[in-house]
């Protein structure tokens, strides 16, 4: 309670400006030293002399120590003194409003456990380091201690260098409001300064309320601590402080407070606290302007919070390397002031490295390499336009950017960026997290600028879950992950390794080129990939992209090749207009797209209300603002489209979705290959489209391939040859207006269709090869079992129509066990002006219903030929030689077993209607024998002994002639005998299995 009350009084006095400086006594020595200090007031200067000297240490002790405004405290030490060690013992706060100075290069320690306030006019004019602290005592290597709370104890004064600051419970705060002019002419207002040396404030809470600290090319230490010892270690610039095992308090910079260690070689800034906050335009700066390497900025805290336009920078503007910027904390929270501000400045080329705000920056604006930026936090939150930024703007190489976090979240237009706007290369961004979320237009990017020649950096993401969601309406660029190049620079590669990758609401992952630079490779390794949806204004579709022209930036086109896109996953879902695309928009070749999904690939649905600018560059546009979900490799310019390869257990394409390869300009189309256990197209499409030139090929390999309102199509719309379709499967099933087709709508020939299967069934299905002006494609189907066409199905080739004339019809070759053409189905090889195609059928049997047909015709040309080839049969191969001695049949007829009165013979089947003779024989037997003929009972003894049953084979040698019994009688032995003289026959009550 007492410590809290003292702290409350301290804060109240601070806010009201009340201090000991308002009294007459400002600097008052006590009488606790062997040689006490002497203070003489000369005008506006307190001259401080005497004190106790031990070796290079000079000890002073005061009951009060404050310096009023416009006045000075002058330590008139000998030049041989290394350390001036000052304590305040009277229980009063030290209010420093004026100047503190000393002779030579001595270090100055100011020790006041009751608190220290540096007012707006406070200055330091000393040649050495300054350590201002609210510690209880100063410890030395020999065990000595110089205490401010026990001044009456005999001090063990020593010539040793101090090694530690001993703090008690709840140390008092230190406040800095100093904005005094620098003592170096022409430099800005810097507050407290120790050029080239250490400036350390170590106490309870540290409050920089608009105050400045400066140690040009030196070291600044800010430590907010609790009970324990802070170690002191001599360094070239003064002292290094250690905080092992120390409890931490609060460090807060507000009101434009500045901590600056810049110079020809950037100095070092270190912060240690529990809660470290930079707000209201506060800044930490350790920038390099010469050829000396910078020292960097190191922040360690439980919680680090940056907001209100504050920033931290370790930039280099010279030949020296910039220092590293490191933040380690349980929680790091960066809150900007304007969403998307930096992203839009980078895109428009208006970003200024001399005008920073809202984030952490490690830049190279000279020839020196930029420092690295490292964030190590359990929880990282970057929101509302805040930035993590390492880039180069001239010839220097940008630093690398590393994030290590359990949870990293970028929201509301925030940015993690390492790029290049000059000749230097961008750095590499590495993010390792359990859960990475990039939301609401935020981006993680290693993008080179439009005028840069340096290479873009690589982006590597490793996380358990990666969630990319949302792009705000009106945004110029989408949110997501990017290694895109906008100029002559090559883009870096992008790698995502995760358990779950979730992309929605217009977020994207892109490694692309919108200039003459080469696009990067995009590699995704995940257990589950789920992407789909679009931004609220319909300007951005969710997806994965590699391209040589940005899908998302209007007017940008690339000329260099794009990179490859590779996805390795257990399960891939593309839905609601989502896109996976390897594309080119001009002369640059598109990369290849490969999907390896061990369990399944599902592409489903479409997006609506899509902006027309997106429709123009999307795959498989339906029109009216509708864009299907798609996996594609395509070209919209002179560059070659890449190949698309999918290897999966189960491929499902449904509800309007598509996969395909496409070229709608002069570039060559790529090929599409799918290997799967099963393929299902339910209102889905697999396509290979070419406007002019040779179309891409489609190759499908699956155990089962089923189409339900599905389409597989390879076509060319202009002058050129359509692509081929090759299908290898065990079972191929067409249902509900499905079709497999190749076509040429220009002067070129249609491609060919080749199928190999165990069974093929078409129900309202079609296999077609069509050309308008050129030759119709060929169709080859090999089926080991049944090929069935029913319900208006067709297999057809056609060349030309009345308006175009056209060439010869394509040929059809069918090889199957059984061919059935039923219910108004057709097999046609037709032409309009050219020769009709030929039809070759190799089969064991052909069934054609009366309403179906097999034709090869030409309306104006020569008809084709239909040949049905049955297997060659040798009629003599199954002839059995008959015996020369013909048996007299009368000798084999038994006269018994007549069909007596009352008996009947009935055959009963399983019921139902007889089969339609025009349909295929069904898979059940036409007649079923219900009898059990293995064994039958042949007789039962009626004697007095136990009955005995004997059996014999139904069919066997029977040498005894049979006589039919007509009655029975009892003989002399009492046995029943069967006899053959019953005069009146009756209906049989027992029907034996055979006569005996």
From TrEMBL:
Cited SUPFAM superfamilies: Pectin lyase-like (SSF51126)
InterPro entries, alphabetized: FhaB/CdiA-like_TPS, Pectin_lyas_fold, Pectin_lyase_fold/virulence
Source superkingdom: Bacteria
SMART domains with a match to the protein in the record: Haemagg_act
Key words, A-Z: Signal
Pfam family membership, one: TPS
Residues of the signal peptide: 1-20
Domain Filamentous haemagglutinin FhaB/tRNA nuclease CdiA-like TPS: 30-141
NCBIfam families registered for this protein in UniProt: adhes_NPXG
Protein name: Hemagglutinin-related protein
Organism name: uncultured Coleofasciculus sp
